[in-house]
Amino acid sequence: MIIQLYRNAYGGLSRSVWLLSGAMLINRSGSMVVPFLSVYLTQSLHFSIGQAGLVMGCFGAGAMLGVFVGGG
Question: Are the beta carbons of 53 and 38 closer than 8 angstroms?
């Protein structure tokens, strides 16, 4: 029953919409790695907490710069 509701709601979408949705899912799934980066840096790579904070700060600054410069 749930599968039938899903097919009725989204079955008519074009192939390009499905490809874009799939690409966005992969992109957003990759974003889930970011919260665990500091744990990986400190536990596996033996960075200090300050070094891991600097890396995360650079990541955040780069992300903000990308939004402002990229216009999106």
Answer: yes
Would the pTM of this model clear 0.85, i.e. be above it?
Answer: no
Q: Provide the domain count of the chain.
A: 2
Q: State mean pLDDT over 6-10.
A: 84
Whether residues 26 and 42 share a domain: the answer is no
Range of the domain at 24: 1-32
Closest by Cα among 19, 31, 41, 29 to 63: 31
pLDDT at position 8, please?
A: 85
Phi, psi of 71, deg, nearest 5: 80, 15
| End-to-end alpha carbon distance in the chain | 39
